[in-house]
DNA sequence: TTGTATGCGTTATCAA
DNA sequence: TTGATAACGCATACAA
């Protein structure tokens, strides 16, 4: 391997001069700079980032911990975060937490070992009331789901507002018996609880009764759980003319479940999701959904991490992403 | 920051002994080991990976370059690669190439700077005949798409075999006018060309004519391009009773396009995709598809990278993933 | 404008 | 079984 010293020797200068050239610092005469760059090109020299890191204590790597990158929503998030991080000169190492508490705790713990400069954690199960996760050694930004109070910077989804708007949208379309298909952690501080509050609030506002038979929960929020939810509703003889799904992925499963029972959407049952994943527009019927501004969220998360690196003492901030209701065929 | 030296001092031993304990090496007496571990726990010491890297020249990071992580297929791939790499003690840094040649070349070039121990490159546009990409400084495994001959280890998709089987499946179901919806780089050494060969081979084998009007190409392979392809077929007055889509994502777009024109699938047009992304099972109608073994591919790619680290001289190998045809509603 | 000395935290080598 | 020393490649401080 060719080192900075080799380049210095070949160019007939000192290591320091090479370092200055490599780092684009001033104070190097033009002829010397050219000579050094020549030698670098010829020799195939590459700066050793580990050595620089050892000196500076910074790796230039931001961790992104998500449940699984192959869930559409988190894949989308990862793509945006990688983009915005690159724009600021950072690389992204992805950790998969598996949506289990141990995985999310581990992601924080590992951030030391991995020498991350910062961590963006999309926690979905970690409960701030039950787990002491205050780390403090590197900037951690909580993304999207759980609210850890003022302990961390937090970029939140418009969970409650979004679901309320979605539910209102169904009501405006004439639905009166609206089911809510979601996860089962209704008590915690989490996306499931917040979105359900929005659903309940909209019903209450419009004077509709929240029928417990129309609340279908399951431990996971997947395509399969959405499908199964419909099977359960129909199996229990529940009457419903609208469904609010906790995510687009679940909604897609619901669509499948409706098809299994020959229920036409939107004619017999209208459906609305949450996230606006890329596929939603192409489903048959295309899916009405709550569309938070994902690019905005990713950019903000990266920005908060980077800014906190510069100023660790800054008070934590909480941002809620803007959103739109995208009306499509599933609620026509 | 607490260093190995600090731990050594606190434990009353040498740095080397601490290192031996941290690395689980033999030759440390039990009492000393316990004492050191105690101090480590108390002091909150964490091994500095950069320093280790500086010594060893290894980072423990494998790069994974994919077009975009938010495409379902590549998200799936990334998830599997991360899993298998973790199993072998490696972390994964994801690069997004944007499916452009410059991005793919850049990924290789950057692998130096990022101090990657290896690179898994899912190239989709880089053409081995036109670009000199032989690097040699770190192990590079080509994944899935393009064939670089013996220059790199290669884990291939069963492109030709898969599409042939898919096309045969349609013929067996009674289709006689089968369209192929794909990308437009039909000449290169790539997934588009191979899959088309499989399509053509199946038609030829069964004595069906390949009507050029039924070959619909577009520069990209997306949900939108699938949808548009159907619009173009119908707009041109083409008659077709089956569609082979180059990927499941494109197939999903095709499904949408069929719906736009009131064409019933599978009654009027049968459809088959390629990849078996998680969503395919839940589409309405559920999608018949060629299902390569993605876990197998990811595992093999990681294995090849890691093995080549150990033995850079080993001749390159080529593996083709096994696959199944999953018959679902879209070809019922 | 350029060079020298020193140290970042770890590990390999060799000696004790 | 343990310890001392010398690197790894770079950047900081300071001297020339």
Automatic annotation (TrEMBL), chains A, B:
Alphabetical keyword list: DNA-binding, Transcription, Transcription regulation
Domain (HTH lacI-type): residue spans on this chain: 2-56
Ranges in coiled-coil conformation: none
Record carries keyword Nucleotidyltransferase: no
CDD domains according to UniProt: HTH_LacI, PBP1_LacI_sugar_binding-like
One of the Pfam families matching this protein, by short name: Peripla_BP_3
Source organism superkingdom: Bacteria
Record-given protein name: LacI family transcriptional regulator
Protein's organism: Phytohabitans aurantiacus
